[in-house]
Amino acid sequence: MRKIHFLLLSLVLFILFVSCNNKKLTEVVEVPLPTAEEKVTMGIPDDVTAEEGAFQMEKLSYPYDGLNPNISPLTLEMHYSKHYLTYTNNLNKAIAGTELEDLTIEEILSKLDLNDAEIRNNAGGYYNHSLYWKCLGKGSGQPKDTLAEAITKKFGSFAQFTTSFKEEATKQFGSSWVWLIVDRSGNLQITSTQNQDNPLMHNALVQGTPILALDLWEHAYYLDYQYKRKNYVDAFFKVINWKKVGENYEEALKK
Fold first, then answer.
1. Is the pLDDT of residue 10 over 90?
2. Stretch 76-94: mean pLDDT, rounded?
3. Edge-to-edge strand list for the sheet holding 188-194
4. Is there a contact between 128 and 179 (Cβ–Cβ < 8 Å)?
5. Is the separation of the CB atoms in 112 and 123 below 8 Å?
6. Cα–Cα distance measured from residue 129 to residue 212, given in angstroms and rounded to the nearest whole number
């Protein structure tokens, strides 16, 4: 686990005004400010485990510094060991003792009551992040084989697909996700959802099986890019594991 120790020392200025015989005595006490030291120790992803329950965390196939400099170790560690862990634990607690406990995450998402915010948000958060981690890696340039052909057929070229995907990401406002999915007709589609919703839910504007996920919540990029979300989207394309996305595509076609 990461341990961050911040030694914060500041200049203390204490001014004491004493009035005596129409004279003012000003006493100033100064404490020297030494150099602040920061010690950061990164953990490893395998050390992070969810509490006992129906679902467990997707194991990362790369260390926290494996996506650097496009996604920093600090961002990845925080995102994985804090946000994703919380969604996983909260989902397990929400479905414990219910009929949902015996379903797959995909079945839960397709059947869930949209008015149940607790299950909706945590089931979505668990599924979305699980896919996001699997889509990332050192980056393999461009898709190959069947997926490459499908992208060219649908979008005209990989370059045009990239432009369309980034445009969809750019127009999002607030916390959201952008997806490449296989729709119910077996065609590729670019779509987006708000908060932790996804295309498996029956309220999705375009329903289908996601094969590529881009997280646009601030916790995914703000430490690295602040308000420059576009730079994060560009960096995301440098760490897409297209081999895995291609495998996701093949699996989606079988459903």
1. no
2. 98
3. 188-194, 176-183, 208-215
4. no
5. yes
6. 11
CA-atom Rg of the chain in angstroms: 24
Preceding omega of 69 cis (within 30 degrees of 0): yes
Q: Which residue in the block uniquely carries the two structure tokens 């965390």?
A: 57
Q: Which amino acid is residue 169, in one-letter code?
A: A
d(CA 245, CA 108): 23
Whole-number Å distance between alpha carbons of 123 and 77: 21
> How do residues 220-239 score in pLDDT, each as one tens digit?
999 999 999 999 999 999 99
Give the CA dihedral 91, 94, 98, 104, nearest 10 degrees.
-10
Alpha-helix runs per DSSP H in the chain: 73-78, 85-95, 105-111, 117-134, 145-155, 158-170, 222-225, 229-236, 242-254
Alpha-carbon distance 239 to 140, whole Å? 8
Q: What span, in angstroms and rounded, lies between the C-alpha atoms of 241 and 134?
A: 8
| Nearest in space to 213 (alpha carbons), one of 252, 186, 185, 254 | 252
Say if CB 198 and CB 188 are below 8 A apart.
Answer: no
- Mean pLDDT, all residues of the chain: 87
